[in-house]
Amino acid sequence: TQLLEQSPQFLSIQEGENLTVYCNSSSVFSSLQWYRQEPGEGPVLLVTVVTGGEVKKLKRLTFQFGDARKDSSLHITAAQPGDTGLYLCAGAQQDTGFQKLVFGTGTRLLVSP
Amino acid sequence: DTEVTQTPKHLVMGMTNKKSLKCEQHMGHRAMYWYKQKAKKPPELMFVYSYEKLSINESVPSRFSPECPNSSLLNLHLHALQPEDSALYLCASSQLKAGDEQFFGPGTRLTVL
């Protein structure tokens, strides 16, 4: 079974702080996606990284894909209460014509005002 | 239209009931997915349809029966469920290409009494 381990599992910080979430695996992925999920809602796609070493920025969020395409990180600068949610990484593996997602264990972020 | 819709939002059913969950997308995606998500856990893949044909069944019990009437619609028929089947059921869709991204619907919160 392929696993994507995320750390930390839970993070509680004050508004304005910076944080980094890590997503690690021993498997290689063709791409990796980051999602944010609010309670009772579906995951919302934030970004997809495809190339080893790739860095993508989305406002205050910076995503990096490891050189070997086995790991990824998400860095949030100056966190805001609206960043609160469950962050999921998901590695994509090719399976007979489509990509199967392997989800990470999740990081629950709480940003207090 | 970049949205995946799911109905109903909430469903409560008894163990002898028959009900169906519905999912719709109009993005021209040719792959559609059903996931099950228990509280504080990542989504678990149940079924994958590719070009309206069932491509993957992740050893899901037969009390869950998927159906793909056309390229925009995906149903999940439920019959004789157990209380442990209570969960958030998520539908997703994607194009069938390299660097594929899955887009999720808001989910159906199912409670089995």
Describe, in short, the structure shown:
The complex is a heterodimer of chains A (113) and B (113). Chain A is an all-beta fold and 113 residues long.
Architecture overview:
The complex is a heterodimer of chains A (113) and B (113). Chain A is mostly beta strands and 113 residues long. Chain A contains no helices and eleven strands. In chain A, the strands form two sheets. In chain A, strands 2, 4, 5, 9, 10 and 11 form a six-stranded mixed β-sheet that branches. Chain A is globular. The termini of chain A are far apart. Chain B is an all-beta fold and 113 residues long. Chain B has strands at 4-7, 10-13, 18-25, 31-37, 44-50, 53-57, 64-70, 73-79, 87-94, 103-104, 108-112. Chain B starts with a strand and ends with a strand. The interface between A and B is medium-sized, with 27 and 29 residues.
Please describe the topology of this protein.
The complex is a heterodimer of chains A (113) and B (113).
Chain A: E1 5-7, E2 10-14, E3 19-24, E4 31-37, E5 44-49, E6 55-58, E7 61-65, E8 71-76, E9 85-95, E10 98-103, E11 107-112
Parallel strand pairs in A: 2-11
Antiparallel strand pairs in A: 1-3, 3-8, 4-5, 4-9, 6-7, 7-8, 9-10, 9-11
Chain B: E1 4-7, E2 10-13, E3 18-25, E4 31-37, E5 44-50, E6 53-57, E7 64-70, E8 73-79, E9 87-94, E10 103-104, E11 108-112
Parallel strand pairs in B: 2-11
Antiparallel strand pairs in B: 1-3, 3-8, 4-5, 4-9, 5-6, 7-8, 9-10, 9-11
User: In total, how many beta strands of chain B?
Assistant: 11
Order of helices and strands of chain B: EEEEEEEEEEE
Question: Measured on Cα atoms, how large is the radius of gyration of chain A?
Answer: 14 Å
- Total beta strand runs of chain A: 11
The pLDDT mean of chain A sits at 92
Q: What is the N-to-C order of secondary-structure elements of chain A (H for helix, E for strand)?
A: EEEEEEEEEEE
